[in-house]
Specification:
137 residues, single chain, 6 helices, mainly alpha, 69% helix
């Protein structure tokens, strides 16, 4: 499978998980649940990292998608985690991610259909650096 398709699938999964983590939850309930909050941060980080790894031609082809927003949020979480506004994350996950995931699904569907119509290429099945064995922890 093409790497860009894998990245889009990761983005969809992270967006849907982030939404599930906040679905039906008030901001106060989220603030009181450290494990859920950390999971939410992780999913936003995955979403943003995958967005930065997408090839430029994919981002250029679908200019209506706010590709930079997940990347910026990821950077904020990773580099300024002590000053995260949980209300912004809660609102984003609750109100914006369902439509974002829907748009990503449509893009994935379009690209998958195109891939099935073209001859196989020599692209690797996984992301660079992921062919190494997992370390023992």
């Amino acid at each position: 499978m093409r790497r860009d398709l894998l990245l889009l699938a990761e983005m969809i999964q992270a967006a849907e998980r982030a939404h599930q983590l906040t679905s039906g939850l008030t901001l106060e309930e989220l603030q009181d649940d450290q494990l859920r909050t950390e999971s939410l941060l992780w999913n936003f980080t995955v979403l943003g990292e995958a967005a930065t790894q997408l090839p430029g031609d994919i981002r250029d082809r679908f200019p209506d998608i706010p590709w930079q927003q997940p990347a910026r949020l990821r950077n904020r979480i990773v580099h300024g985690y002590w000053s995260i506004d949980l209300e912004i994350l809660h609102t984003t996950a609750t109100d914006q991610l369902p439509a974002f995931a829907r748009d990503l699904r449509q893009i994935l569907h379009t690209l998958t259909a195109e891939t099935e119509q073209t001859p196989a290429t020599a692209e690797p099945d996984s992301a660079p650096g992921h062919d190494e064995p997992e370390p023992d922890i």
